[in-house]
Design a protein that fits this description.
This protein is an all-alpha fold and 202 residues long. It contains nine helices and no strands. The protein has one domain: Up-down Bundle (Vanadium-containing Chloroperoxidase, domain 1). α1 runs antiparallel to α9, α5 packs across α9 and α7 crosses α9. The longest helix is centred in the last third of the chain and has 33 residues. The radius of gyration is 19 Å and the shape is elongated. The chain starts with a helix and ends in a 5-residue tail after the last helix.
Amino acid sequence: MFVILISLLYPTKQTQAQNWDINLLKSINPATPDNPFWKTVSSSAKPLAVAAPISLFAVSLIKKDKQLRANAYKMVGSLVITAVLTEGIKRTVNRDRPFVTYPLEVFPNSIDETGKSMPSGHTAFAFTTATSLFSAYPKWYVGLPLYAWATSVSYSRLYLGQHYPSDVLMGAVVGTGSALASNWLYEKITRKKVSKKAPVIN
């Protein structure tokens, strides 16, 4: 699935980036992107993604709540899957960030960061956190602020000129898919353990 998405979203080296990718980014990335608010939103992705499962695990120990602990394990799994997929795709696609490909003509004032562009790691971690928590607590008043935050992180990456829109879209797919995959794997492993422990009735 990810290979197909990459082929659809990632342009060839000859064309560098599709016009819609560049034009949409140009409309979002301002002439002076040095905005403290969007910098803060952007930098919140990874710390909150790590803090969430740690907090759940700590509370689960205090309350001796097995379900909370299970949710923490699922979140850790989603973060690991997200990190592996994000790094793997970055190395495979090897797409330069917008300000590297177009340093003067298009994005002269982007915030300089290292690493490859596709997919957006910040977006991936934000969406895997939002999806993991929403899966554990499927209420609108939980999902709405979570996905609003994840979407804001995505927008901040465009505002700061760090990624193309297709990078952000791929990051959202990777993050969401990683959370769902982690949930599925955890449930599958748990069911196997339960079935092995169940007594055999002759």
